Amino acid sequence: MFRRIIRHKARREHHEQTSQALHPGREGFHSAPGQRVKTNRLDSKKITEALRAGQLKSIHVPSPTYRHLRHLTKIRDLVVRQIAGSKCRIKALLLFEGIPFPEAAPKSHHWSRSVIAQLHPLPCSGAVRFRLDRLLEALDFQRQQYLKITRELRNFCRQDPELNRCLSYLTSLPGIGQIVAPHLLARIGPWQNLQEHRVHELAAFLGLVPTEHSTGDRVHRGSITRGGDGRLRSKLIQSAWMAIRQDPELREFYRSVYRRHPQHLAARKAIVAVARKLTTRIFAVLKEQRPFVLRPQIHSRPLLPGEIGPRERLDASQKEEERDLPSFVR
To answer: Which tens digit of pLDDT belongs to each residue from 249-295?
Structure first.
């Protein structure tokens, strides 16, 4: 009881000291600690004072064309996640029942049509057969939806001259194809909004710049901020893996960053740096409205197995999946 009284007294004294420190005239845009009154009149006053002081920043509202493009890229990413989930559920069911997964033919995709055709006659019990058939039906439906969305997305971009021109400039960059380029345009918006001397803002917008906690002469930079669209950032990093294989300049830049870090962090640090460098090229081709020209005269040897992380590359798997797509989608 005595300890409880002491703690209550200490909290009351701290509250009295804090309340005396608050001044009614020191109101900022955010409510001060201890401010318990909120009305529309007070909120309007704070907003007008912040507007008069120039503390409010304007936002950019995308045009209907770019809003529609965002809808199409979002629904495509959603269906891709659903397809990946259906594949995992099918493999988990077979693993749980001890049924081996069909092997793909040499140089064929792991989920090719021949592999899916082998899943239908697999011998299993009635309940497992029923569940597997439903999962295969869901997978087939989702793949059909993916084909329709991809066709609609590409037709939508071809019908708009500005989108079609910007897509051709973006796809001229090594590592960026028909999957990453529309997502980039949907998030960046019209190229006219890109301002000169603000190249690095695009990397910050995509969350590829390092965090910083510095004071005085002490400078400390940590991991990337991971702000913005996480799926677009992941796509850019996967594009960077493809770009260092096609562009000798980026490959040497990857090696220079790789050598400066420990072995267990080198690949991740280097590929994020390459993705950030890609953002400067994206800014350049959009702002200058010209395709990227590769400089092949730079001598660079191919990457060794120890210089590449063990992760599966997204672009390689996407190219294998596109072989199964109908011609009207490509």
So the answer is: 999 999 999 999 888 888 999 999 999 999 999 999 999 999 998 87
Residues 284, 288, 290, 293, CA torsion sign: negative
Q: How far apart are CA 138 and CA 34, in angstroms?
A: 55
Q: How far is CA 32 from CA 26, 47, 181, 322, in A?
A: 8, 15, 45, 56
Selection from 206, 239, 232, 224 nearest residue 314 by Cα: 239
Radius of gyration of the chain (CA): 27
For the entire predicted model, the pTM comes to 0.76
Q: How many other β-carbons are positioned within 10 Å of the β-carbon of residue 275?
A: 24
Per-residue model confidence as pLDDT tens digits over 13-28: 444 443 333 333 444 4
Q: Do the bridges between strand 221-224 and strand 210-212 make them parallel or antiparallel, or are there none, so unpaired?
A: antiparallel
What residues have CB less than 8 Å from 147, skipping those under 6 apart?
325, 326, 329
Which of 80, 68, 232, 235 shows the shortest CA–CA distance to 145?
Answer: 80
Q: Which residue has the tokens 């996640």?
A: 81
Contacts of 201 (CB under 8 A, 6+ apart): 195
Q: Which residue has the tokens 């510095």?
A: 214
Can you tell me the distance from the alpha carbon of 58 to that of 211, in angstroms, rounded to the nearest whole number? 24
Summarised one tens digit per residue, pLDDT across range 50-83 is 889 888 888 888 889 999 999 999 999 999 999 9
What's the pLDDT tens digit per position in 93-118? 999 999 888 887 776 677 888 888 88
